[in-house]
Every structure is written in structure tokens, then in C-alpha cells.
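Researcher: Structure for this, please.
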Amino acid sequence: MVAHSPEKRRTGLVLDPVFERHETGWGHPESPQRLSELRKRLEADGLTAACIIIPPTPADRESLLAVHTESYLRRLEQACRAGEKFIDTPDSAICPESWQIALLAAGSVIEAAELVARGELDNAFCAVRPPGHHAERDLSMGFCLLNNIALAARHLTGRHGFERVAILDWDVHHGNGTQHIFEEDPAVFFVSLHQSPQTLYPGTGFASERGLGAGLGTVLNIPLEPGTADEQYLEAFEKTALAAIEKFAPQFLLISAGFDAHRNDPLAGLSLTNRAFERMSLSAIELARRVCGGRVVTVLEGGYDLQALADCVSFHIRALLGAAEGPDR
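Model: Predicted structure, C-alpha cell format:
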């Protein structure tokens, strides 16, 4: 059970069975079971009750068009309603309900960011699917339909006028969609640690990719070789990624929290343990406390070993709540 303390924060949680209705088909790694098992674990650990539940909220068209093209949105909606099995690539499986579920995933992340921006919550974790960071403006990729975290970032810089928002992406796969959406935008700093693009999908995220035009210098890619384990990863995470974010001094931190760099994950080749994810959670939340008043919203991306996913997310939420003990450093 979660330990309560005087420093316990107001942590929002998006976690609802509706996201399990996005059916991806037999054998697909991005399965509804990812969330059904996670819900059971968080309830058993007392974390669902310790958080403030954010009801699923659909994204409106205006918000969607701040990131995605009208032609893509129409194409995605029509493909779902027509009962197509996938959109753009067989990886991006869909079912008739996927359009509505994707709207709820995107809108719920926007709502979480809104509540934190208004000071009604201190931080939030969004356990939504389908994931989002591979989705481009006009193209689905890698299980992702709408770019949930990009939509939240655009909401913050648009409606709320934040001048500096940082997106930290620790999914094992490079967040190509998020990078491309913001690579010319100096208001959004995108930092990604991921397995080398020479060895893993989607083949982007080289260190030489640093942004374009007015956004030059606001992209930081940290590719890591297969087999990278805790010590080397954490050094890059703390001394390069977090240090760069601190220098940028964001007013809000968003995290694409994929847990597929875990050594037990079936889809990639990094070798992190639970301990690494625990330290990453604590370090990133502490950074947010120092530089942006603790304003942080984290969004589930990958993570396909169910046990590792449940273990890491359970600790991650305890860290957001301020109820986690740090691993030995």
C-alpha cells in the first residue's frame, strides 16, 4: 500500500477501462492487457485511491488541428468507422472504436496538463492508449494514432502562453513524431534517450538531429547502443538530458514515459532494471520541483513486459505522490 506523508502531492491519474476498448488484434504487443493488468496492480497497491482521478475527456477539433492536419484526421476517422484493420502501417492497428478512444487519450492528456497548469493538481500520470509519440502531423506510425504529448505541449504554449515547455522522452524508441512537430519551435525543448536508430525502429534520432530554423538547438537526441545498462544510461540521463533541461529552464515538464528500455522488454535491446526507472522518476520529478514549480505530466508510451511495466509504473506514481523511497545511488 502507498505510504502517506505530509509532503504527499495532489497527483492526477488518468486510468479508465475505456482505453482497453482500442483492440489491436491477436498477438499485437500494444494490447488492451497492458492497461487491464496495470489497473489491477495500481488498485492493489492503493495508488488509484491515493490519486485524483481525471475522467476521460475527448480532444476537440481545434486542439487536434494545432498538431495534426485536417486530411489526416478525416482519414483516420474514416478508416476506423469503416472497420479497417490498420491505418498507414500494419503496426498501427485500429478497430471501429479506435477513433473515439484516440480522442479520449489525447483529450485526457490535454486535460491533465490543463489541471496542472491551473494549479488544481501538482502533477499527473496518464495511463492512456493508443500511445502517441510516433504519430506525425499527417501519418500514423508505430502503434500511435494521435500525438498525445505533442497536443498537450501545444495546449500549454498556446492557450496558457508558456514560453518554455520541455518534453523528456525516455521510451526506448525515438519519438520521431514529437521531434518533427516541434523541431522548428523554440518554445519546446525535446530531449530523447533511445536505442541507436541504426539498430531500432523508427530509424530516426541521431545526435546530429538538433532542430531546424528558429528551433535549432531545441532538440537533443541521446542514442544508446544495444545492451546499455543502468550505470551508463543513468549517467547520460542525469549528466546530459536533465542538465540540458535544467539549462533550458522550462516552465512545465512533460514526460513521454515508455518503459520498454527495461531488460525484460521483448521489443528492444537496452538492459535497464527497475532500479534505473525508479531513479529516473525521482530525478526528473526533483528537476521539475527545482525549475518549474513541480509542474510535470507524464504520459504512458511503450512498455510491453507486463510485470516490468506494472513494477515501474507503480513506483513512478509513488514518486509523483511524494511517497517513494529512492533506490541506493
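Researcher: Any notable elements?
Model: The chain has one domain: 11-321. The longest strand covers residues 188-195.
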